[in-house]
Every structure is written in C-alpha cells, then in structure tokens.
Amino acid sequence: MKESESQHNTIIRGFSKLNRDQRIDLVKKRMGRELTKELDAFLQSNAEFQQAFSEFSENYLSNYILPFGVVPNVLINGQLYLVPMVIEESSVVAAASRAAGFWAKNGGFNCEVLGATKKGQVHFTWTGSFGFLHDHFDELKEKLFQATNSITASMRKRGGGISSIDLLDFSSKLVNYFQLDVSFETADAMGANFINTCLEFMANELSDFCSAYPDQGELTIVMSILSNHTPESVVKCSVECEIEQLKSLSGSYTPDEFASRFKMAIDMANVSISRAVTHNKGIYNGIDGVIVATGNDWRAVEAAGHAYASRNGNYQSLSHIELDGKRFRYSIYVPLAIGTVGGLTKSHPLARFALEMLGNPSSGNLMEITAALGMANNFSAVASLVTSGIQRGHMKMHLSNILNQLGATIQQKENAVLWFADKTVSYAAVEKYLTTNGGDTGASAK
Ligand code: MEV
C-alpha cells in the first residue's frame, strides 16, 4: 500500500489480507500520527492471546478491554453465587451488589426456566396455492426430518433436536410469502449454527420437493435463518418480602410509601414508552453484564427482550409488581437464548473463567442467574430513583472517572472522594477542586 494512497480518502483494497502490524500501520497513516508508547503497549497487550483472538474477528487489530467485576452474595433458588459481570458503566456492579445483598437477607431470587425452545424459519415464496402445500405437508415434513437426521443426531443424544415443523401462510400480508416455522431444543448450546444448518438443509429439501410438481407453482427460497424472537425461551425470576423489610431502602419515606412509589414507577413504565425503554435498559445493565462475561450474544438477548416487552402491542416494563397487603412481590419474565457450550464460551479464557466461577452451569442455570442480575439492577435503579434519585450514587462512581481523566494522583483521588461526599459532582467542579487547591483538601479541611 503506497503511503500517499493510504493517507487520503481513497478506498482501501485487500485490508483483510494484511497482517496485524500492517493493518495497524495503515490505520496510523490514515490517522496521520504515530501511536503513543502507552497506546502501542495497549495494542500489543496479551500477546499470547493475540493469535486466538484474531480468529474471532476479521480485520483484527487488538483486544478491547472492559472491566470484569463480580457481584457477591447472589442467592438464587437457595444457592449463593459469585456472579461475574463485564460492563463499562461504573455504577452497575455496585447497584447489582446492593440489591443482591438485600435479597440474600430476604429470601433470595426464585428463578424458573419456563421453556428453552428456539425457532428458525425458511422464508420462501410459492406461486401455487397454500392448499397444495398444506395437503402435502405431512409427507414433506417427514422428508424434512429425514434430511436433517444426520445433523441432529448428536443434539438428539443430548436431549435436543427439532421439536416441530409448521407451515405458515403470510400471503395475505405479502404476495406469495410462506414460511417453514421450525422449533428447536438446543440443550446447553445457544444453537445458532445448529439451527441455521438445519434450516438450510430443509430449504434444499423443500426445493427438491416442489420441483417435482412444476405444474403446481414455482418456489423461491429467499432465506433460511434462526429467529432472535424467542418468546418460548423464557425465564421467570421473582423476589418477595414483607413491606416492612424495605425500611433500609426507603430513605426519608416509610416502607409503605416506598412500596407504593415503587409500584407507581412500574405502572408508569407500563403506560409510557419513554419510561419503559429506560426501565428495561436498567434490566439489561445486569443481563448484558453476565451475557458478555460468559461469552454469549448480547445483541440477540437485547433484541429478544425488547420484542418481548412489546408482545401486548405496547412496549412495556419487563418487571411486574404486586403489593398484596403487607407483602412486596416483584417479578420479571425475560426471554434468553443463551448457551454454556459452543461459541466463545470455551474459547475465551475469561468466559471460561466466568462460567467456572458460576460452577459450570447448564444453560438453564445460566438463564436463571442472568435473569436474577437483570432483576437486581432493575430493583436497585428503581429503589434509588423513587427515593434519593440516581445521580447521587452514579456521580460518586463518575467522580473517579473524572479524576482519572484529569490525571489526579492517588492521594488527590482519596481527598476528592471525601471532599465531594456531600457536594454535587460535575466535571467543572472536580476540575476547579484540583486546580484551585491542588486537590489536597479532604476530610481534614472540612
Ligand atoms: C442507567 O444505566 C439505568 C437507569 O436509567 C435505569 C432506570 O432508569 O430504571 C437508572
């Protein structure tokens, strides 16, 4: 690659054919600068894993590091877990830990997998009648099962496989559009590759089948792909306690007032999409942290969750509350299509470590743990929002980010934490604190 070419706004050809050093070189040229020593060291870090990681993604440059934290004392179905979370938002692990600690003393999280069925579809057009496909469907189905027999053999040994195949007629919505709608059980795997392979085999079989009846119509396979809409792969998580037990979280409110403000927050999320999306985002703070830590696909999990939140026609809260006399009952239902085998779960050393920390759970166990963390973060967020507000806790964590950005020393950081304990944190306030008195004013100066 000529330097003059790479420095300008020209199309880059053959980027994936370059080796890692050449790619970094090209990026530097495009950016028009050398890397600082610190950045260069970062790009080269974990050299022993570079080869393995380069195989996870095309055009690999380096590893992107995020904080890996742990939430202790997560009591789920009577068992205590240390739950790993990978997340960049500074207050999330603290919020989850607060809720986990509270519920560990109040009965813990009760979780139950309601189903783990995933689906995929062969999307096709057919110019013939639905009646013809419908009348021949039993025969076709038999052929579809047979065509996938060899691929499903090992999954069937693990208790999974194809559980049903249906023919769906969408032709009233889109001319000639039909689907093979296939249900799968994927044991401890998320199963994306398994499902997609089965679907592609079925698509070929369907083509062969229809080509034997050229007078009946013309078939065009458009695509074969799993669906990330997983309303049958759902876990329920619930907590409950005496309202009186909520005293430690109620701030200046009585436990009854706190509980009814909490309920109002959920009611609001059920009628306002503006509130509901943020409310559910708080749930995904916890869920995504576990999903990323364990090497699962957080985009799939998010997509499924937000679609599920809209299942009644309006986007609503994924968590539900019931105040029943003196009892506070809180629950969530979340769709989760995740695995503890396959994908990155075993090939990423920290994902492997995360799963080991959880006692090498089954995918069902991991669904329960993940849902509990979603509930923990949501509970903590709503409890803060309806009492002191969120900024107090957030800004404390944010303070350390600002101090790092401003290059504060360890001593200055310690002083600043004490100084800002009863003050409002903002970038400007922290900057002023550091410049006006060198950040050496702490508790002793108060
Ligand atoms: C911030 O990451 C999450 C919250 O906004 C969630 C919520 O508002 O419920 C605090």
Q: What can you tell me about this protein's structure?
A:
The chain has helices at residues 3-7, 20-31, 37-44, 47-54, 92-104, 130-135, 137-147, 149-157, 192-211, 255-271, 273-293, 298-309, 349-357, 363-385, 391-405, 410-419, 427-437; strands at 68-76, 79-86, 110-113, 118-126, 161-169, 177-185, 219-226, 234-242, 319-324, 327-335. The protein has 446 residues and is α+β, with helices and mostly antiparallel strands. Strands 3-8-10-9 form a four-stranded antiparallel sheet. It has a four-stranded antiparallel sheet with strand order 5-6-4-7. Strands 1-2 form a two-stranded antiparallel ribbon. (R)-mevalonate binds at residues 89, 278-279, 281-282, 285, 381-382, 385, 390.
Features:
446 residues; alpha+beta; 4-stranded antiparallel beta sheet; 17 helices; 10 strands; 47% helix; binds (R)-mevalonate
